[in-house]
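User: tokens in, sequence out, please.
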């Protein structure tokens, strides 16, 4: 059984919506490098714990 991470779910949803990384960046106002970090569960690449929570919430809400 494969466990889906939060990042994997976000990436799958983005691709279901037909959004590329640049489109997701424009849509969410989150920098592309941070979107990649979220989608790969690389939270250390974000500027701090506050941003991890805020960006995850914002990105998930925008993707529905």
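Assistant: Sequence out:
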């Amino acid at each position: 059984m494969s466990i889906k991470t939060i990042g994997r779910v976000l990436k799958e949803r983005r691709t279901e919506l037909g959004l590329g990384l640049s489109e997701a960046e424009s849509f969410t106002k989150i920098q592309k490098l941070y979107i990649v970090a979220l989608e790969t569960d690389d939270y250390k690449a974000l500027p701090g714990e506050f941003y991890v929570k805020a960006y995850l919430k914002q990105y998930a809400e925008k993707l529905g």
